[in-house]
UniProtKB/TrEMBL annotation:
It comes from Leptospira interrogans str. UI 12758. This is Transposase domain protein. InterPro entries: Transpos_IS110.
Length: 122
């Protein structure tokens, strides 16, 4: 049996009861949405604002900006769809936002900015 070379981890799954519950909910909803098109969303969390870019099916970019307040995060959650795959960097507010997105049933990948050089080289 051939062994596979280890690849750098791109995402991080935080195993807490809330995340596991959300992860199961995501898989249930993802099966419902398999026939629809997946869109990728990049999120940059700042102190006062959240910059978001979605790549649409026509490869066009849809840019949005939300505040980091509860109402801003709720607006972000309303804007996201179950077919989105969201990537955001690990930071002070990222895990709070990632948890909210997971609770909606949207897939989230939290990226460690310290690993970007490793990811870039692979």
């Amino acid at each position: 049996m051939a062994t596979q070379q280890s690849r750098p981890r791109i995402g991080v799954l935080v195993l807490s009861p809330d995340f596991v519950k959300s992860f199961r909910l995501f898989h249930f909803r993802r099966k419902e949405m398999e026939s629809q098109e997946v869109k990728y969303v990049g999120v940059d969390c700042g102190k006062k604002s959240i910059e978001v870019v979605r790549i649409n099916s026509e490869n066009s970019l849809e840019r949005r900006q939300f505040s980091t307040t509860e109402s801003g995060i709720n607006n972000l959650l309303q804007w996201l769809t179950l077919n989105d795959i969201v990537g955001l960097e690990a930071g002070s507010q990222s895990f709070r936002i990632a948890k909210s997105i997971l609770n909606k049933g949207v897939q989230v990948i939290v990226l460690n900015p310290g690993n970007l050089a490793t990811i870039y080289q692979s």
